[in-house]
Amino acid sequence: MEHVLTNARIVSMQAGDIGYQPSEPLSIVIRDGKIAEITTNTFADHPQRTNCQGKLVTPGLIDCHTHLIYAGQRANEFEQRLNGVSYQTIAAQGGGIMSTVKATRQASQDQLTELALPRLDGLLRSGITSVEIKSGYGLTLDDEIKMLKAAKALETHRRVKITTTLLAAHAVPPEFAGKADSYVDFICQSIIPQVAEQQLASSVDVFCESVGFNLKQTEQVFQCAIAHGLAIKGHTEQLSNLGGSALTARYNGLSVDHIEYLDEAGVQALAQSTTVATLLPGAFYFLRETRKPPIEWLRHYQVPMAIATDINPGTSPFADLTLMMNMACTLFGLTPQEALRGVTTHAAQALGVAASRGQIAVGYDADLAFWSLNHPAELSYQVGIPSLQARMVDGELCHD
Ligand code: NIG
Ligand code: FE
């Protein structure tokens, strides 16, 4: 089936500054869900023609790090933190991730999908066409599988592409209290093999942190994931510098995420790999962190930077990717061009799909976002003023 979009001002996000400049009005020919041609032809007599009326067309945005599936909420902890209790202390007292684990274990798979829909709708309103979703609030074989299935089921409710990540190594569950090594063995002997066998996730993530898993445990999980044909990624250097980013880079992981405490040596390790540096300004903002990720070094060593919402109930309750672009600019000093790269080409790389998503180019998936804006800088500039007109996923227009 062929479909033509005419009169589109395209921000292709192909390599270089030129990919960021809106084109003159052009037509995009879409065949079988892929971009087949980009041309000045206006196709006056084409039977399947949509006039974009000069709207800005970008690649569909990609949110490459979320914890969209969870039950409960943690406004009480937000309040505690504002009364001076730290995130780490709340976690040590059994709150934090554990309180969400408790609520998530009690919910059914269908309830988890249902609870995630309004959050997903928020992301869709910010123009996303792909989203990564992690498990990590189940921490038993059955509950991790339940979360991954609940995440995948979202695709049957909304037009969006979902990539799932196993994050069983998010926290040590109460059943293994004081026995983190045994829990890591359990992840490697039971959870990863089952999840790989049932094809419920394409990658495995580890929270490598003093309140999470140490370097040795992280490496054990990575090696097991790779042996099962899964990609790896890490929550690294969020609260301290353990060297998790360099470890992830050594295994050519997809991405290292948070990275506020990453040092120059860590950035150099990333530069020697294909690993993307994913910035999560929502968590930085919400935890009122002061230590910023090393943007200058990342630029200097030309490490690709992605930006994601990290939406979760504890550290980033924000279902808006363009808000994250704004925060990456205002809090971390990214340029609006870097911010848009961070949610298109670089986010695609962070999901391992850079050859088919994240750009408007011939051969790429026809995943697009249509905006009533003049210039792509406006995506990072304003917040809360609806400008998304429509999304397209695999050539299918969605007016949600
Ligand atoms: O990405 N850092 C670890 N995991 C999440 C937070 C999870 C939670 O607090 O529920 C994050 O910030
Ligand atoms: Fe996260």
Automatic annotation (TrEMBL):
CC annotations in GO: cytoplasm
GO MF: imidazolonepropionase activity; iron ion binding; zinc ion binding
Domain Amidohydrolase-related: 56-385
SUPFAM superfamilies to which the protein is assigned, alphabetical: Composite domain of metallo-dependent hydrolases, Metallo-dependent hydrolases
Binding-site positions, N-formimidoyl-L-glutamate: Y137, N312, G314
Keywords assigned: Cytoplasm, Histidine metabolism, Hydrolase, Iron, Metal-binding, Zinc
Needed cofactors: Zn(2+); Fe(3+)
Biological processes annotated in GO: L-histidine catabolic process to glutamate and formamide
Cofactor note: Binds 1 zinc or iron ion per subunit.
Primary location group: cytoplasm
Catalytic function, reaction form: 4-imidazolone-5-propanoate + H2O = N-formimidoyl-L-glutamate
Binding site for Zn(2+): H65, H67, H235, D310
Function: Catalyzes the hydrolytic cleavage of the carbon-nitrogen bond in imidazolone-5-propanoate to yield N-formimidoyl-L-glutamate. It is the third step in the universal histidine degradation pathway.
Name of this protein: Imidazolonepropionase
Organism: Vibrio metschnikovii
